[in-house]
Amino acid sequence: MEIPEVIEERRLCRGKRVALVQRVYRIGNDFVARDVVCFGQSVAVLAIKNNKVLLIKQFRPPIGRWIIEIPAGRVEPGEQPEQAAVRELREEVGYEPGRLTKISSVYPSPGYSDEVIHIYLATDLRYVGASPEAGELIEVIEVDMDRALDIVLSEGVADAKTVLALTLFRMLTT
Amino acid sequence: MEIPEVIEERRLCRGKRVALVQRVYRIGNDFVARDVVCFGQSVAVLAIKNNKVLLIKQFRPPIGRWIIEIPAGRVEPGEQPEQAAVRELREEVGYEPGRLTKISSVYPSPGYSDEVIHIYLATDLRYVGASPEAGELIEVIEVDMDRALDIVLSEGVADAKTVLALTLFRMLTT
């Protein structure tokens, strides 16, 4: 399928973690400007131990509330996604995986963000101690695999990658 | 759980569809600055007709490629999410639903965006003709319900809300 030509791209501003750019495309005879939030790659990890899922309850400034998520974070410069998955799992819940398997990769918001989330399954977990980043408010909770999806969905508005990881895992294993 | 106090919020810049603000929180004795992409509410619609799913193949500037998605878009000022779902379904694929049911609401990127996506199931569809927005490159495809998830996942990196709608629907109906 036709890929429209990029005529111009200019950065509108840069925050601490994301930049906002405006990209202008030529589509037929029209020039169309689109916002692009530049974020890059991130990882999320469905970590399972003795049929329990390791979840975190975390304060998220953009939505102004605490929300239940699987461990997740950004792929830092120079990292491979698998390395980021192992690092985030250790930092946020304190476990190292013996096995790490890719479940899926998804675009959470392709309408305005370039983010790609790589979702992994982590098993054969070994406790090594958590080390959350400064300024992150995190509480770790362990939840029965069978109850995890209900708990996450019961929040009213749930975290998309967490629901996705749980539903895809359930479909792959049943 | 404790909700940290917002000390300051300032807009870094505004694009055509999103704004980037920086929000400063007091967490314990620390001041923590976080980027927030202000987007607001959106809708996505799993539309099913004779056991086929109505999907669109759409060029998405932020990721620079065409991707298969369920019909979706932003809740415009003054609209209720249900109205936006009906409007987007009509504009993008040309159908009006006799029944519209909420499947779930999710945050696609709570780490940096305030977006909430409301996902609906649309059935009892009646064709009224599509009217895509200027500058949107869209192709409508109808796919067997049983094959839809495989087709979407086969793209390598898939659209999160589309996978979510398909997996949640499958779990609700089996």
Automatic annotation (TrEMBL), chains A, B:
- Transmembrane stretches, by residue range? none
Say yes or no: keyword rRNA-binding present: no
Q: Pfam families, per this entry?
A: NUDIX
Q: Which GO terms describe its biological process?
A: nucleoside phosphate metabolic process; ribose phosphate metabolic process
InterPro entries assigned to the protein according to its UniProt record, in alphabetical order: Nudix_hydrolase, NUDIX_hydrolase-like_dom_sf, NUDIX_hydrolase_CS, NUDIX_hydrolase_dom
**Cytoplasm found in the keyword field:** no
Q: Which GO terms describe its molecular function?
A: pyrophosphatase activity
Q: Which residues form the Nudix hydrolase domain?
A: 38-165
Query: Which Gene3D superfamilies does this one have?
Result: Nucleoside Triphosphate Pyrophosphohydrolase
UniProt cross-references to CDD domains, sorted A to Z: NUDIX_ADPRase_Nudt5_UGPPase_Nudt14
The alphabetical list of record keywords is: Hydrolase
What this protein needs as a cofactor is: Mg(2+)
Q: Which domain of life is it from?
A: Archaea
Q: Which PANTHER family match?
A: NUDIX HYDROLASE DOMAIN-CONTAINING PROTEIN, UDP/ADP-SUGAR PYROPHOSPHATASE
Protein name, as recorded:
NUDIX hydrolase
Species for this entry: Ignisphaera aggregans
